[in-house]
Specification:
The complex is a heterodimer. Chain A is of the alpha+beta class. Helices cover 32% and strands 27% of the residues of chain A. Chain A is globular, with a radius of gyration of 15 Å. In chain B, strand 4, helix 3 and strand 5 form a beta-alpha-beta unit. In chain B, helix 1 packs parallel to helix 2. The chains are: A alpha+beta, B alpha/beta.
Chain lengths: 147, 113
């Protein structure tokens, strides 16, 4: 993960176990920070879903519930923006291999919509290979002028 | 809180009143088991009332789809009623509005089967 920059202040840097309980822990921690920043209720809901989907991917698909592997969660705040980074210790991830969940032939698939929701609910979304291994997601949400 | 399900009969339509969160883990599996149980017992007209569901994640959406395919594979119908705005938004984002029949009003939904 990159160090906070561009006027950002680190608000949280923690390692989570590869369990589903970590999903709730991450959502709660990020929403506390986002709430204090002044995000409105609907935006908090969207941020919460995006965080859940990201950490679920890290725990389930990245670390595969391996108790020896951790999920690294880092949250930074900048000028009217919230930056959330999640890194797993899995075998990496290729976005291109995820079937398009909006294609007609995939609409009835039971899974594969998490990244779509992260994209939809955050202002910026990036996923890339992490070093030395794993996948890293970086998401940004901006406070609107209405907040 | 995970999801709580209550089942009732309105004519020949089975209405499932869901309340809480349908998310990865207990909430999603509770929903999946309930649908499979109903279908196994021969219920083929199922109306899912989501008016008290406050939160669904992608796993919960997956369970809705799974329920839909479970019922339709047995030549039944699964329809939705009472969607909160957030749930409607999710169905629109995922294009599942094109898959599910969605109603605002329970009486109209029941009549539609």
């Amino acid at each position: 993960m990159r160090e906070p920059g561009n006027g950002e202040v680190q608000a949280l840097d923690t390692l989570l176990d590869s369990t589903l309980e970590s999903v709730d822990t991450a959502e709660e921690a990020v929403l506390k920070i986002a709430g204090e920043m002044g995000f409105a209720e609907e935006e908090l809901h969207r941020i919460g879903i995006a965080v859940r989907e990201t950490v679920v991917n890290a725990v389930v698909h990245g670390n595969r519930y391996n108790i020896r592997k951790k999920v690294h969660l880092r949250v930074s705040q900048g000028d009217r923006r919230l930056v959330i980074e999640v890194q797993d210790e899995g075998d990496g991830f290729e976005m291109a291999r995820v079937p398009d969940p909006l294609a007609d032939e995939n609409l009835l698939r039971h899974s594969g919509r998490g990244i779509l929701l992260m994209h939809a609910f955050m202002d910026e979304f990036q996923m890339r290979p992490a070093l030395p291994k794993g996948a890293e997601v970086r998401m940004v949400k901006y406070l609107s002028k209405a907040n | 809180m995970s999801v709580k399900l209550n089942t009732r009969q309105v004519g020949d339509v089975t209405v499932i009143d869901a309340a809480g969160r349908i998310t990865l883990g207990e909430g999603a599996s509770t929903f999946r088991d309930a649908i499979r149980d109903l279908v196994a017992k021969g219920h083929k007209k199922i109306l899912l009332n989501l008016s008290d569901v406050s939160y669904i994640d992608s796993s919960g959406i997956g369970e809705l789809v799974s329920g839909f395919t479970t019922v339709t594979n047995q030549h039944g119908q699964l329809k939705l009623v009472g969607l909160a705005k957030r749930v409607k938004d999710l169905l629109q984002i995922t294009k599942l509005y094109t898959v599910f029949e969605v109603f605002e009003d329970e009486a109209a939904a029941v009549r539609s089967f």
